[in-house]
Amino acid sequence: MNEIIPSSVAALLRGRLLKNEVLANYTSWRTGGPADYVFIPADLEDLSLFLRAIPASLPVTWLGLGSNTLIRDGGLEGVVVITQGALNKIEQINPLEVRAEAGIASAQLARFTARAGSAGLEFMAGIPGTVGGALAMNAGCFGGETWQHVRMVETINRTGEIKLRPLADFTVSYRHVIRPESEWFVAGYFGLQPGDKEKSLAYIRTLLEKRNNSQPTGTANCGSVFRNPPGSFAGRLIEECGLKGKQLGGARVSQKHANFIINESDATSADIENLITSVGATVEEKTSVRLIPEVCIIGRQKT
Fold it and tell me: Which range is the signal sequence, renumbered to this chain (predicted)?
């Protein structure tokens, strides 16, 4: 660890620091080049210590399940912090409020609250990512959106300072959240309603069955690729343009749901990005609707 942090601090860290780690191992598309460094913290305290120790000039990127991110084949400069499996504490503060750290899978949060006899977060079982990602983009499905249920959040800044922030500190819209600069979500406090355990669990099963019937679950994909334009659906527009099954390299538009792109056969990130660009251009040419990618595309092009 001595290359980017002092040895005196390295001895105190309990997490894992990996060098030149291939990021395809951390994304749901199973693509992406190497990061200079990957840090998997032991917990929030460990993460805070790490951020305080690294050089201020070192870029920091965050990944949960990597389900809404396309990392280019050239990889990422700096350090990538992996929250999934690391920031994994979840606790019921009272019957009407739960705190979940950023690395908790959204589906895990949905099931946890349902089993506790609380209602309101069942829809999150259909979000293929973590709480941190859901907070960062106001993820939603089945008519629900994450920030409809947020009461307050915890963030951490570039120097490792943890802050408790109210809703007023954020500007939230459809699949977009403006947050204080150089701060990242590390936990969310969610409001709940009184519920019935068996009814909530049954509802989750119904939602997941609906998702499995309509989406290409079990394949390497990122979830929805494009935001739904006002008054319409991205998948419907893509399908109406005859793009279901369209393939570039190892990437293909899903036959099951046109707003999903799957890594069908050893796709590169360039294959996927080129297919996203091609689909967007075709839809705009044929319908005059410009589709906005929901997926975050980051990193260096491979040289």
Answer: none
| Residue 157: count of CB within 10 angstroms of its CB | 15
Query: Among the CATH numbers 1.10.3720.10, 3.90.78.10, 3.30.70.1230, 3.90.740.10, which is that of 234-298?
Result: 3.90.78.10
The single residue of 122, 154, 183, 294 carrying the catalytic annotation is 294
Q: Tens of pLDDT along the chain (303 residues)?
A: 458 998 888 899 999 999 999 999 999 999 999 999 999 999 999 999 999 999 999 999 999 999 999 999 999 999 999 999 999 999 999 989 999 999 999 999 999 999 999 999 999 999 999 999 999 999 999 999 999 999 999 999 999 999 999 999 999 999 999 999 999 999 999 999 999 999 999 999 999 999 999 999 999 999 999 999 999 999 999 999 999 999 999 999 999 999 999 999 899 999 999 999 999 999 999 999 999 999 999 999 997
Which residues is 127 bridged to in the sheet? none
> Is 294 one of the annotated active-site residues of the chain?
yes
Strands 176-178 and 171-173: what pairing? antiparallel
Strand-pairing partners, residue 172, are 177
Cα–Cα separations (whole angstroms), residue 26 to 31, 176, 270, 271: 9, 23, 17, 18
Name which CATH class applies to 90-214: alpha beta
d(CA 159, CA 147): 26
Domain 7-82 part of CATH 3.40.50.300: no
The reply to whether 198 belongs to the active site is no
Considering the candidates 106, 118, 224, 269, report the single residue annotated as catalytic. Answer: 224
Can 48 be counted among the known catalytic residues? no
